[in-house]
Amino acid sequence: AGLGVHATVDLAGRCRFGPDVEWTSNAEDVQVDPTRAAAFYAEVRKYWPDLPDGGLVPDYAGVRPKVSGRGEPSADFVLSGPSEHGVAGLVHLFGIES
Questions:
Q1: Which of 47, 53, 33, 38 is closest to 5 using CA atoms?
Q2: What is the dihedral of CA 41, 44, 48, 53, to 10 degrees?
Q3: What pTM did the predictor assign?
Q4: Which residues, 6+ apart, have CB-to-CB distance to 12 below 8 Å?
């Protein structure tokens, strides 16, 4: 599960909606699945009820590593420091959602 679909105005002044969450086992597959549009429209229309059909255009997709897997309870982030990886002064932060 994600944190919900929200609106962000980018530096060009365009409004972008997202993120949406789709689990994948292939990190190379970052195509936007057009069959998910109806559910995405429903989420956006919770705060923009007059969004016209066809008013959204799929844009980019990416992979966000998660600490917990599909069907598991959401896990908090993980901190990994020198005692875990052996590199002095380095701290990894995994699974931070936003």
A1: 47
A2: -20
A3: 0.62
A4: none
Q: Print pLDDT tens along the chain (98 aa).
A: 466 788 889 999 999 888 777 888 888 888 888 888 888 899 999 989 999 999 998 888 888 778 888 888 878 888 999 999 999 999 998 888 66
Going from the C-alpha of 26 to that of each of 20, 23, 36, 51, 67, the distances in angstroms are: 17, 9, 18, 32, 16
- If you write DSSP's letter for every residue of 45-86 in order, what string do you get? TTT-TTPPTT------------SS-TTSPPP--EEE-HHHH-
Give the pLDDT confidence score for residue 3 in this predicted structure.
67
Torsion of CA 85, 88, 90, 93, to 10 degrees: 40
Residue 16: closest CA among 6, 3, 24, 25? 6
Q: Report residue 51 as tokens.
A: 């969004």
Q: What residues have CB less than 8 Å from 68, skipping those under 6 apart? A: 74, 75, 95
